[in-house]
Amino acid sequence: MFDLSAVQAAIRQFGFDGWLLYDFRKSNPLARRVLGFGDGGHSTRRWMYFVPADGPPRKLVHRIEAGALDHLPGDKTVYLRWQEFEAGVAALVHGRKRVAMEYAPRNSNPYVARVDAGTVELVRGQGVDVVSSGDLVQQFEAVWDDDQWAMHQDAGRLTDAAFRLVWQFLADSIRQHGETTERAVQQQILHHFASHYLVTDHPPIVAVNAHAGNPHYETGNAPIRAGDLVLVDLWAKLDRPRAVYSDLTRMAFVGDTVPTKFADVFAIVASARDAGIECVRNAFAANRPLRGCEVDDACRAVIDQAGYGAAFVHRTGHSIGLETHGNGANMDNLETRDDRLVLPGCCFSIEPGIYLPEFGIRSEVNVFVDKQRQVHVTAGEVQTQIQTIPV
Description:
By secondary structure, the chain is of the alpha+beta class. It has helices at 4-13, 29-34, 82-93, 117-124, 134-141, 146-177, 182-195, 260-285, 292-305, and strands at residues 18-23, 47-52, 58-62, 75-79, 98-101, 129-132, 180-181, 198-199, 205-208, 223-224, 229-238, 246-253, 319-320, 347-350, 353-355, 360-362, 365-369, 375-378, 387-388. Helix 8 (260-285) packs antiparallel against helix 9.
């Protein structure tokens, strides 16, 4: 539900004169979610909703869909011709200097950049400085309430338990039959999810040996036998309204002793992961603003220094929310420069990896910063070494 007083307080907090939310044919899901639209409904015409830092909001809607924003407070202007639309935009932002929109300079953050360049040009043509609404969006799209934090912890306990099930399944299957398959392990995880009322938007990744060197490997039927390295990446949330995800990756070796080539690379990845966690903890302990790109830098520096920089081919982490990849700050200074703030009430992954032709290593944890600015690493113990599966 749209909370005008909370939105205006956030606009003032970030020093903006207002927030101009715009959509055309559901092209801006961030604006629609902030304003409380459902997934359904018919939307074929442009609308704008301007929330000033103070005072009543104002609406601009087309005559064909004049009721598009009727669930929101504020006076309504109805346009028909394109000239009336442009005049309506000018009236919405008249006298304002800095207005936030779902825009990112030079498309530096495509997760935020939902408004087309022409519409930004139109608003700027009124003498307005258009700035990014990225941190505003986070406040209403990525910050969890207490119920969501509790649901994440429940999901975390259940996803953590899935790994214990996997390790036992690998041991039993290989002892009895000499091998199992990636797909068989994946099915065990999905059965665990279903039996504990967890849902997921995509099946988990189970990748053996060289397949683990592909960060987004699609699980197949490759055999898993003694002497193999196995990566398991799984994510799920409770099957409840407004539930949020837990997303974890752990490594295992089928055998009594992990070969040095695997253990050494894992140690580097774990050190990078821990450097990212420490970066977050230090910033919040010092009450210092922290941006997602800084966490990526902290992790990446460890892997770069170890000589594996070219093998760390994705961002350090992503926002976690209603979707596995949420709409808050990502821990990224590689694919994009994410300069959004890491806000209290938000959760994100820290998951550095090293991906080589013969094998890959990733370690993924979830980090939640509570409203008291305490930093939590969620869902069980942090993996400090590759799990052995004696067979």
